[in-house]
Amino acid sequence: MHDALNTYIGRRYDTLEPVKVLVENRRVIKVESTSDSSDVELPWIAPGLFDIQVNGAVGVEFSSSKLTVEGVFRALDKVRKDGVFRCCPTLTTNAPDVMVNAARTIALALQQRPEYKDLVWGIHLEGPFISTAEGAVGAHPKKYCRPYSYELFQEIQNACGGLVKLLTLSPEYDGVGEFVKRLTAQGCVVAIGHTNANAEQINEAVLAGATLSTHLSNATRHLLPKWENYFFTQLADDRLCASIIVDGFHISPQLARTIVRAKGKERLILISDQSPLAGYPPGRYSMELCDFQIQPNGKVTLAGDPNLLACASFPVTNCVANVAAIADLSLYDAFELAATHPAQLLNAPRFSNGANDFLEVGALADFILFRLQKPQMGPLGVLDGASFVTGKFIFHDIVWHGEQITED
Questions:
Q1: pLDDT tens sequence across 209-255
Q2: For labelling, which of 17, 99, 163, 346 has a CA lying 20 to 30 Å from the CA of 304?
Q3: How confident is the model at residue 381 (pLDDT cuts 50, 70, 90)?
Q4: Residue 408 has pLDDT above 50, yes or no
Q5: What is the 3-state secondary structure (H, E, C) of the chain?
Q6: Of the candidates 177, 156, 178, 151, the residue with the CA atom closest to the CA atom of residue 166
């Protein structure tokens, strides 16, 4: 019952203070310090996370001709149970009609279940305006990659009633400055990714309003020019924030530390790049455009090519646990990368309940209680292999809009 009085005890992730939180009628009614301060086993209590790159979950792919309203609900339910209270369903490169219909289906789902509008801050278009160059294209189908088309963007935007809040493109095509300006003028944040652009083209996009590098260092060629290349150009540009996937496979611990130090915590965002196969056990799976393989350690690749990554199987909570250990960040700093920094990028409230403090009295009760399991790595920090075990959250309670949704 939503009107029942529930009590939660945990250690705040930001102040480290042990607190007792009382929730009634979906709202926080009282927060007080607790005498359990000597209990080092208290779970952490923190706000829900904000993942701006979620491709699907539990077999549901957002960018698919087979997407249904029920599928949207299943994927979003998985997102909530991972402690993510805001997300951007991501439509990756596909046929134009597929992307249009998928955007329409997501919007229809939110109309049928209005409470889920709080979960979906907006749609992220990752493509189709990206590079076809080897490496840069990643796992996106080359046949659907194309130069900019404002008409196609607007068709997708109209289909979902203006839900597109973020678009990842490559600046390598003619007219990037004008295209970026048109998108940002209507409130869409523009990111650079899956690119083979040179420094001049990247600068043109940034001057026009691009503010993010999508999964920086991924979707690149194995061999890059030693000095001048699109990775260093974006890494060194303080005008660009960067999203990174710290799941243990997409970037090495050494590179994660390098990016954190070069960009600075204030310009970093953690993303999951969660695969439609997230929540599934290791094995081979057929999806709409090709087959994928979940390796025994959780790494997701194209079937038959263990080196070609295809999204991730872990939620963004794992990335928080990993980056805290790898880059020697406090839990608070790591949380900022996956909670408030994405909100700043997309002009969203700091916390999912719109409060100034996620435990503000009177606010909707949105918080998670968990224990932190640190990652295990080899002595030098291993990119992949048997020596790496991902960090993760072990949940005690997940409270969203006053409702306890932790699985039994």
A1: 999 999 999 888 777 777 788 899 999 999 999 999 999 888 888 89
A2: 99
A3: low
A4: no
A5: CCCCCEEEEEEECCCCCEEEEEEECCEEEEEEECHHHHCCCCCEEECCEEEEEECEECCEECCCCCCCHHHHHHHHHHHHHCCEEEEEEEEECCCHHHHHHHHHHHHHHHHHCHHHHHCECCEEEECCCCCCCCCCCCCCCHHHCCCCCHHHHHHHHHHCCCCEEEEEECCCCCCHHHHHHHHHHCCCEEEECCCCCCHHHHHHHHHHCCCEECCCCCCCCCCCCCCCCHHHHHHCCCCCEEEECCCCCCCCHHHHHHHHHHHCHHHEEECCCECCCCCCCCEEEECCCCEEEECCCCCEEECCCCCCECCECCCHHHHHHHHHHHCCCCHHHHHHHHCHHHHHHCCCCCCCCCCCCCCCCCCECCEEEEEEECCECCCCCCCCCCCCECCEEEEEEEEECCEECCCC
A6: 156
**pTM value > 0.85:** yes
For residues 124, 294, 285 and 87, what is the CA-based torsion angle, rounded to 10 degrees? Answer: -20
Tokens of 327: 């880059």
**Amino acid letter, 203:** N
Contact between 243 and 53 under an 8 Å Cβ cutoff? The reply is yes
Q: Residue 405 pLDDT > 50, yes or no?
A: yes
Q: Which two tokens stand for residue 336?
A: 């900022």
Paired residues of 32 in beta bridges: 20
